[in-house]
Design a protein that fits this description.
By secondary structure, the protein is α/β, with parallel strands linked by helices. The protein is built from 15 helices and twelve strands. The strands form three sheets. A four-stranded parallel sheet has the order 2-1-3-4, with helices on both faces. It has a four-stranded parallel sheet with strand order 6-5-7-8. The structure holds 1,3-dihydroxyacetonephosphate (13P) and iron/sulfur cluster. 1,3-dihydroxyacetonephosphate binds next to loops.
Length: 307
């Protein structure tokens, strides 16, 4: 079976659009209509005129697309593609946390369930988190969840003192500062690029901290020729395509030979599953209407504040 040919045929026949996050496998990135970070995927989903959105990413990305485009059919290649960070913030526990700290504005990272977004005043992604936090008065009392490392990083660069939920991403928390330092000895001229979901010791070593899209842009524009990349290694595909004259070295996984610098949820999606999901129009993402009605407000507020 020529999956690529069949996916292209079905996409056209069904007026479907394929969106892929930078952490998808190379083959999916290569066939996607749009590749982007979480913010760009939400922006594309809000404005597409396709009948079907196939979100090659994880569940919360599909939910965000469905909330923004409720009349479209939103499919994901693998329904099990979740997110450890979203899982680290159950809606009922987050609601209790908010109740325990009255008078706070609630800012949630997009890596959350629709139910958590429904408890939120404004959603952020790693691309716009700093800008959106800084749009509030300096003395605004803010709860930030669920990523502790991102919240801690934003606190450190803005001087804010947001109250942080203690969640994290299992992929980014595994990068080790010691191993990156070892790599730096091997590549002394390399610049270290890190996603803000990494822990503080890794971020302190970084020459640049940013979202996947920001890291890609930085690498394309910098004069440097070598980069050590501390985020999910799927991003290296676009880096190598956009900068064929530069060298990108993935930050090492925590133990030799393991693939733990790959997100096992993102990597559940394959070309074959993408083909099947377009063919059978399943698994479909559905969001409870009442939850969606509340969750759409903080997402639209984010899109407005990102302009
Ligand atoms: P981006 O905002 O860079 O797309 O990050 C999403 C993500 O899941 C990081 O782990
Ligand atoms: Fe979630 Fe981490 Fe995977 Fe991103 S890399 S989707 S935060 S588990």
């Amino acid at each position: 079976m020529d999956y690529i040919k069949e996916i292209k045929r079905l996409r056209k026949k069904k007026n479907a659009v394929i969106m892929a996050h930078y952490y998808q496998c190379d083959e999916i990135q290569d066939i996607a209509d749009y590749i982007g970070d979480s913010l760009a995927l939400a922006q594309y989903a809000a404005k597409t005129d396709a009948d079907i959105i196939v979100m090659c990413g994880v569940h919360f990305m599909g939910e965000t697309a469905k909330i923004l485009s409720p009349d479209k059919k939103v499919l994901v290649p693998d329904a099990e593609a979740g997110c450890s960070l979203a899982d680290s913030c159950p809606a009922d526990a987050f609601e209790a946390f908010i109740k325990d700290h009255p008078g706070h504005t609630v800012i949630s990272y997009v890596n959350t369930t629709a139910a958590v977004k429904a408890l939120t005043d404004v959603v952020v992604t790693s691309t716009n988190a700093r800008k959106i936090v800084e749009s509030f008065p300096e003395d605004e009392k803010i709860i930030f969840g669920p990523d502790y490392n991102l919240g801690n990083y934003i606190n450190s660069v803005t001087g804010r003192n947001m109250l942080l939920w203690n969640g994290g991403c299992h992929v980014h928390e595994r990068f080790s500062a010691e191993q990156i330092l070892q790599l730096k000895r091997q590549y002394p001229d390399a610049k270290v690029l890190a996603h803000p979901e990494c822990k503080r010791p890794v971020l302190l070593l970084a020459d640049f901290v940013g979202s996947t899209a920001a890291i890609l842009k930085y690498a394309a524009e910098a004069d440097t020729k070598q980069f050590i990349v501390a985020t999910e290694s799927g991003i290296l595909h676009q880096m190598r395509l956009q900068c064929p004259d530069k060298e990108f070295i993935p930050a090492p996984p925590s133990s030799p030979g393991c693939t733990c610098n790959e997100c096992d949820f993102m990597r559940l999606n394959t070309l074959e599953k993408l083909y099947r999901c377009l063919r059978d129009e399943t698994p479909e993402i559905l969001v409870d209407e009442q939850v969606a009605q509340r969750a759409v407000k903080p997402i639209l507020r984010m899109l407005e504040l990102s302009k």
